[in-house]
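Recap from last week: sequence in, structure out.
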Amino acid sequence: MSTENLTPWAILDGVPAFLDWLRDVFDAEEVVRMPGPDGVRIVHAEARIGGSPLMMFDSAPDWPATPAFLRVYVPDADAAVARAAARGARVVTEPTTLWFGDRIARLADPWDNLWWVHTRVAAPSPERLAAGPTPEEAAAAEHVASSLEVEMRRRK
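Predicted structure tokens:
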């Protein structure tokens, strides 16, 4: 087993509802949920999406809610975005297939975490990747990039 690991954290208000949302949208498995002394605030929780962990805890005065930026690969980005939207997420970027072989979308969940939702739909050759996008493909990528810029301005 490798000793190198990266585990993202989300600090938010409402970990129990977030765990439910993760289950419903990304088929996440809840691994652990540890309530604090008050029995309400969650001081540590972990979910797994596929083989990847996501740790979280409820905010506190000295640990304010801090939106996370997360990327997840799923079997069907369109279906995941539809499930997320049905459960209160705001679609930032509609699902778009980009020239490097991924269909991507972005969404902001009800806790204001920003998700990049990807599905691998093609495997371009190294030569194709080295050639870069066509003008049409570059325009599609620019549209995707501009939707993120609008979102980031909204957050300021």
